[in-house]
Amino acid sequence: AIIVVLALGVAFFAFDKFVLSQSREALIAEQARQEGRSEAEERARAADEIVTYMLEDLDKRLDEFEGVAKLDPGFDAALIFFESLAPEDMNINTLERYFDALTSAGDLRLREGKNADALRIWERSLEISGRLIEREPANANSWRRHGDAFVSLALASWEDPEKIVLNMTRALEFFEKAAEMNPEDFRNQGIQVSSLNNLGAGYTRRRDFDAARNTFLRSLALNEDLRSRTWPESANVRDRLLRQEAESAGWMTEVELHLGRAEAAVEWHEREITIRREELSNSGNPVRLGDALGWGAVAYEAIGDDLTGRSKRMEARQLFERLMQRDPDNFYWQRRYIESTLQLTMADIHLGNEAAAKQALADVEKRLEEVANKHPDSAAVAGMVTRMELALAQLWVDSSTLRSLEYARRGMSHLEPYLQVDDTPFETIIMHAEAAALAAYAMMIEGMATEGRALARKEIALVDRRSGGSENLKDRQIELILLWLAGERQLGDAIHAQMGDRGYRSNWLDQWRERLRQQGLLSH
Fold it and tell me: Using an 8 Å Cβ cutoff, are 402 and 436 in contact?
């Protein structure tokens, strides 16, 4: 009822306050005349009122419901109002408020899964921040805002690692300029820490793990340096730096896994999770905790502790489920919930909890159908559907290879269009390879050995061609299974031994090796 009332209030507010009718124009002119201000000054004052209401009052009222879509009409109207202002009507304060409105409106679109709309809005914010620098080149905050605009562009292009690296590199240039101009302002110093984390994330997604690791270590070193200084509002500064330390530690967990250092990954995860749990008890970000739990599960599974891994996946799923229940139509929460459920399902399959896995997959299939109808062209949805098909193929691989083959082929078909694109994320290639491994295995069991080995060899060539020479052990276990299936046992065993030497102890890989041995498929 509260949400409905607020939604009606937003609609009325947008109609009454923002629609630029002739009567609105007359009202502005008359009010300016009566109070002795110019019409341009009155417009600037009205713009400031609008943004204050939209960014502070209304956002706070709706935040607890996560009702992001309810904010759309008001933000749209606010942006239209700003666009109606002539450039000479926009003083520094108005430009800054316009920039803030664009930043928040783009953030809303991103949270709704509307990346193209967010990108369009944030490209406009880059123009406005550029105008701020032109107006006040000696103002450090103008340079910081210009850096913020590049950060937003990186977020809108999160599926493209090259654009993340490019935009975050540019953002850092402007943040460093702002910090140099005003070293006493923590905002201009602290934002470099988060930017280094985002740049490291871009390197990670680009699979340049050494560059990523060095970038995160730079972020941690700067964080420690800033923490050693005295700042106004020290409590707030401490909380922010702790959050950034957790962010760096979380990325280090992933990077160490990619570099084959599973024990180090577990240590970084525990460092992150301690901060995240403390944060959550003090109104921290539950999404970050959920993501941390997911990567922590991977780290523990990499050292052979599947039970701890499953418990972390269960906690992550419960967390995202609570968030989704608060706002069932939010694509952001739906995606997180579905992905966490699918990861938990795979863990249950490996542990032999088939009843739990089947129940979870039935729930996911229903939810995915609804999401796919709303977002038919989403690469993220295609990935989730493929992951569901992989889970089904894995579930039936030992009891019904024909059924497993059907699901594996369906999983491969979902990803085929994305393989034609050169900048397809490598995660997509590995997911396709996992489906191909299941399909090849099922074909060989069903008497199609020649076809199965040919498929495995074809997939090995695809992975090698698109991997960029990565030594990521988590992905290499898929390559290893394909090598065994292709009849390259000697090479496969050598890689398996190297993985063991580097501390990678995957029970899932051991299960596959035993399965292939029992079927007589580990030939020289």
Answer: no
**What is the 8-class DSSP label of residue 36?**
T
More confident residue, 468 or 427: 427
Specify whether the CB–CB gap between 78 and 54 falls below 8 A: yes
Q: Where are the alpha helices (DSSP H) in 112-160?
A: 115-135, 140-156
Average pLDDT on 415-441 reads: 86
3-state secondary structure of 157: coil
Q: Express each pLDDT in 350-386 by its tens digit.
A: 999 999 999 999 989 888 888 888 888 777 888 889 9
Q: Is 47 exposed, middle or buried (0-12, 13-18, 19+ CB in 10 A)?
A: buried
d(CA 67, CA 89): 33
CA 309-312-313 angle, 5° bins: 85
Signed CA dihedral, 363, 365, 367, 368: sign only = positive
Task: State how far Cα 263 lies from the chain centre.
Answer: 25
Give the whole-angstrom CA distance, residue 492 versus residue 496.
Answer: 6
Single out the residue of 263, 272, 304 nearest to residue 290, CA to CA: 272
Encode 357-391 in three state secondary structure: HHHHHHHHHHHHHHHHHHCCCCHHHHHHHHHHHHH
C-beta of residue 50 within 8 angstroms of C-beta of residue 18: yes
Give me the pLDDT at residue 14, please.
Answer: 53
- What the block records as the tokens of 58 is 């209304």
**In contact, 506 and 477? CB cutoff 8 Å:** yes
Q: Which residues contact 225 (CB under 8 A, 6 or more apart)?
A: none
What per-residue string of b and e applies to 319-343 under the rule 16 or more CB within 10 Å gives b? bbeebbeebeebbbbbbbbbbbbbb
Q: What is the C-alpha separation between 311 and 309, in angstroms, rounded?
A: 6
Q: Quick check: pTM over 0.90?
A: no
